[in-house]
Structures are given as structure tokens and as C-alpha cells.
Amino acid sequence: MAGRNHLYIPGPTNVPYSVMSAMQVPMEDHRRPDFPELVRPLLQDLKKVFRTEQGQCFVLPATGTAGWEIAMTNTLSPGDKVLSFRFGQFSHLWIDMAKRLGFNVQYDEIPWGEGISPDRVETLLRADAKHEIKALLICHNETATGVTNNLAEIRKAIDAAGHPALLLVDGVSSIGSLDFRLDEWGIDVGLAGSQKGFMLPAGLVMLAFSPKALKARESAKCPRCFLDVMDHINANKDGFFPYTPSIPLLYGLRKVLDLLLEEGMDNVYARHFRLAEGVRRAAQAWGLDICCRDPKLVSNTVTAIMVPQGFDARDVMHYAYHRYNLSLGAGLSEVLGKLFRIGHLGDLNELSLACPLMGAEMAMLDCGIPVTPGSGIAAAGAYWRETAQPLAKRG
Predict the structure, then answer these.
(1) Domain check: are 32 and 149 in the same one?
(2) What is the DSSP track for 1-57?
(3) Is 294:145 a contact under the CB 8 Å cutoff?
(4) Do residues 216 and 353 share a domain?
(5) How far apart are CA 11 and CA 16, in angstroms?
(6) β-sheet bridge partners, residue 109
(7) Neighbour-count burial of 65, counting CB atoms closer than 10 A to its CB (0-12 exposed, 13-18 middle, 19+ buried)
(8) Most buried in the list 88, 139, 292, 295, measured by CB within 10 Å?
(9) Is residue 395 a part of any domain in this protein?
(10) What domain range is 128 assigned to?
(11) pLDDT in tens, 23-80
């Protein structure tokens, strides 16, 4: 098929050309005397993305899934009770891991498409008078349904309950794209994967630990070796890693941090909101619902679009991929066949997102879904034009 594949899943995301170029480096000695000149600024600048001055950042050659394990095993002990909420595929998988690692998992079932109620968090923690719950496991942005939880309100709920539990947050599809404030929101561990808002290939997990989480590590008794942050604490202080790092990914991360910090994190968040709102307006113009039921919790990194009754979203994806070389995100588990997802995070602008809107519309028409041709991109384009930065007249 002529032309390139158009990737619009919510991760992995498109890698900017400048980042790809930065990763084209010869292999080098990761124990050379000047290697810390790369490592130390990386770890300091990561703190600016996690929005922390008090915390400590870590980079491991792993994935976001490993980040879940790092967060739990470095702060908890076998049999510890944790509280979580199942409201999508990735919150489900984190709960499953916690069970498999031997933690005592208490969780609420939430209908997919809804988010975590801070009031419910407060109620559950108040009921835990003996403070048996040692940590909350919270997915910030549930990629499967396009729901973003309000971490600031969840922190207020924890504080209102007067509960000392750690707050462990999966920010894989949020950090680097959505507003995330480790210090301000009292997050104890935040974790991110390289393949989403960080615009890199998969292969790195980045974490930030609060002082409270680092203190908890001292008494945590879970077995750990490769994923023990203490080894990184010892090596990072001198600008090195405890084992061989992925050198190309580190150079790529250096370039990504330059791009994010040059744009400014608040501007990054605003750009993601504006682009996402255009996608949501396209869905509205098609007459289709999105999975997220609460307008206050809509994700700015992925929109999960429901297909009408009697249609299968997998058919839309089939036509999109095989006829138009467009990769859309699938519905997962409980929403399999009920929706398709458009990822809109990372290296994107208005014309980038015009592509999946046109492709999804054509694929839906091919499947017989009654949408008005051109309606989606017209609605998105009108919004993007209305909200564009003023441009000085030529000459």
C-alpha cells in the first residue's frame, strides 16, 4: 500500500523526527567518566515534568507495567492491604498484578465509562479505622475508556478522611500530556511509560517517589532485585545506573525533555486539551456518544467513540487499517466491539488529527454507519480555527 501507516492509537505514539535523530548514536561506555553529564540533567529535568521539587526520579529499562510493580514492591510488604477501583482494562490489570504479588486487594467495581468518586474514596478510608489500607492504586487516565480521574479531589478526600495511606498513581497515558502535579497533589509514586506522552519507543519507565514513599521503602519487605530503586539511589547519586541502560533511549529522552520544557508544561497541557476538544466535537457532529459519561472527566489524550447499536467497532478498524492504512485503538475487554479509540497525545497538531477524523469517517461510512460525510472534520476544523492563536498579517 502506498504511503505510510497513520498511527492514532493511544500508545505507542508517533516519534518526532528530531527525537529519532537524537537516538541515532553509536554505542558508548556507560561507565565513562563523563557519562554523568547526560544522566544527572535527565533526572533533574524529569522532576519538572512530574512537577516535583521534593521527590526523586528514576529511569529504568522497562515498561509501564513494570512501573506498577516497582511502585508496590518498593513501598509495601507481602499481605499489605491496598485499595483500588476497577473502571477499565488498565485499572483491572493493575489490580490483577497486585493480587498475583500477594497483596490483599480491596476494590470497587465502577461502570466502564465512569471515573472514581472522591466521596467514595473518603467513605472507604473513613471506614478503615485501623488504617489497614496501606496504599491506594489509582489510574489517572484510563486509556480503555477515555476517562481522566481528578487526582486533586482524590487527594482532598484522602486528607479529609485523615488516612495515612500512600497514593500510587499510574500516569502512563497522562504524564507529559495532562496536568500532573506530584508535590501539590500529594502523590507518593507517579509512573510513566516512554511510548506515550514522552514520544519515544517503548522501553523506559520513569517514576517519581515522594519523600514519604522513599521512607516507606526502608520498611517494605517485598522481594525485589532488578526493580529495586535502592540500587538506583546508590548509582544515580554519582550519575550512573546499576546496570546497562538503553543509551539510545536516554539520548531520545534528553531531546524529548528539551521539547517539552521549551514548549512549557502548561502549554503542553493546553495543546492537548484543544486538540482533544476538536476530536470530541467531531464525534458529536457524527451523532456518536463517547464512552466517558462525565464531561468533567473526559480525557485529553484519547477519545473512545461508541458505535451505534447493531454495528461492530472492529469492522470500522478493519476498514480503516486495510483500506486507508490507519491504525485506530480497539475496544478492550468489556467494551470490545462497542467502541474505537482515537489517540491524541504526543507529537500532534491540528492537521495531524485531521487524518484520523477523515479516515475514521470514511471507514464508518464503509461499514454503513450513518454519519454525514465531512461533518466531523468540519466541526473540528471550525473549533480549531476559532481557538487558534492570532497571526500577524503578512507584510
Answers:
(1) yes
(2) --S--EEESSSS-PPPHHHHHHH------TTSTTTHHHHHHHHHHHHHHHT-SSSEE
(3) no
(4) no
(5) 14
(6) 86
(7) middle
(8) 139
(9) no
(10) 17-262
(11) 999 999 999 999 999 999 999 999 999 999 999 999 999 999 999 999 999 999 999 9
